[in-house]
Amino acid sequence: MCGVYPRGLLPSSIAVGGKGSADDRPMTRIIPLTDLRAAARAAPLRAATDGPAVVPSGLLADARGRPLRDLRISVTDRCNFRCVYCMPKDVFGRDYPFLPHDELLSFEEIARVARVFKAHGVEKIRLTGGEPLLRRNIEKLVEMLAAIGGLDLTLTTNGAVLAKKARALRDAGLNRVTVSLDALDDRVFRAMNDVDFAVDRVLEGIDAAAAAGLSPIKINMVVKRGTNDQEIVPIARRFKGTGHIVRFIEYMDVGSTNGWKMDEVLPSADVVRRIDAVLPLAQVDPNYAGETAERWRYRDGSGEIGVIASVTQAFCRDCTRARLSTDGRIYTCLFATAGHDLKQLLRGGADDGALATAIAAVWNARDDRYSELRTAATAMRPKVEMSYIGG
Ligand code: SAM
Predict the structure, then answer these.
(1) Dist CA 159 CA 241 (whole Å)
(2) SS3 state of residue 74
(3) Would you say the CB of residue 254 lies under 6 angstroms from ligand 1?
(4) Which 8-state DSSP code applies to residue 184?
(5) CB neighbours of 277 closer than 8 A, spacing ≥ 6?
(6) Distance in angstroms (rounded) separating the CA atoms of residues 11 and 66
(7) 131 C-beta closer than 6 A to ligand 1
(8) Which ligand 1 atom minimizes the distance to the CA of 221?
(9) Is the omega angle on the peptide bond into residue 6 within 30 degrees of 0, that is, cis?
(10) Measured from the CB, is residue 79 less than 6 Å from ligand 1?
(11) Residue 98 to residue 83: CA distance in whole angstroms
(12) CA 86 to centroid of ligand 1, rounded, Å
């Protein structure tokens, strides 16, 4: 059962203490985790106002025994690209009601939430969006998150302004970047981003990130059959031997605006077959339990690729990810229809203990496994957009 805590091994109690930070205060009392779970299920996201604040420490597990390990934070719902599979122009046009600035979590609020998530076992934080590099002074947020310590800090970007920002991000404490790149052919790339953005500028961004030491760099290619699948082998070739890791992602039915159809999904097994036919591959063990990408290495020793088969081989059973939306809601699945409002607590004077309790309640009650249950009918269900929840 990789990545999953068998029920019998769940921690049976949690330590609790007085008001203060989740990280540095002494623990003073122990309450059974089961009690917290029951209370949490009954009243999710209610601020604890009486008595000592409850700060669960150590591991949490959801209703399926999955631990909480990763947090994806969407820092803006805006993007300068209009990728046809993510933010199609006809929906995200000039009049689209993006969030007003005061609805966005401030950097201080994000860092505070991150600290509480870390106390709950989160080890890795990914900044995303929208396009995270559009958020003004994003490096300041990186610095604040790096100051928490002990977190693997990464960021996913379309690379448009990465050449300008890479060094400052690295200096602020970012560990690595993932760059989205759906084609090398400039014509195909411009058609996919739908804002006529040249592929060379993204390639410059990748080079700048490598020079700044933000490696190993991951390159994400979303494969849409009939649109960019002819780019699979050229992209694999281009980055073979560079140390960058290309990950080929199955086109998913995220959100409700991309008009997803199963026939446009090219199964990851086909991606591997196409690459292996010209650049022989061998499968590699995962780096850790719950890794989303299946790893393959080039037989000549010149690097590796990954495939993310989120449609044809769902990996919900190992999913350890929570998402924090731009406006401070917690989502426990990329395909969720609703989130849990943390901002109300943050701005309503809740202390860290109350935040921790609320987060524990959400995680303990989590039962999502959308991708394992996906059908043509569920794909039509209204879901939140990836740009808002964070890809
Ligand atoms: N703007 C940044 C970027 O382009 O990487 C971060 C946000 S974007 C939503 C994060 C990732 O989600 C990108 O790699 C993007 O290609 C991927 N993505 C968006 N829509 C997708 C879909 N329908 N299926 C699979 N991946 C998708």
Answers:
(1) 21
(2) strand
(3) yes
(4) S
(5) none
(6) 13
(7) yes
(8) 16
(9) no
(10) yes
(11) 17
(12) 7
Identify how many contiguous H helices and E strands the chain contains and give both numbers. Answer: 13, 14
Give the closest residue (by CA) to ligand 1 atom 11: 391
The CA distances from residue 148 to 117, 122, 309, 321, in Å, are: 11, 12, 33, 19
Does the beta carbon of 86 lie inside 6 Å of ligand 1? yes
- Beta pairing class for 340-341 and 329-331: antiparallel
Per-residue pLDDT at 376:
64
* Per-residue pLDDT tens over the stretch 228-274: 999 999 999 999 999 999 999 999 987 787 788 889 999 999 999 99
Residue with tokens 């990851």: 268
> Which candidate, 1, 122, 103, 7, places its Cα nearest to that of 58?
122
29-32 vs 13-16, strand pairing mode? antiparallel
Instruction: Please give the structure tokens belonging to residue 370.
Output: 């959308």
Give the model's confidence band at 377: pLDDT under 50 very low, under 70 low, under 90 confident, else very high: low
Per DSSP, helices labelled H in 21-124 are 33-42, 107-119
Report residue 289 as tokens. 């339990």
Task: Compute the residue count for the chain.
Answer: 391
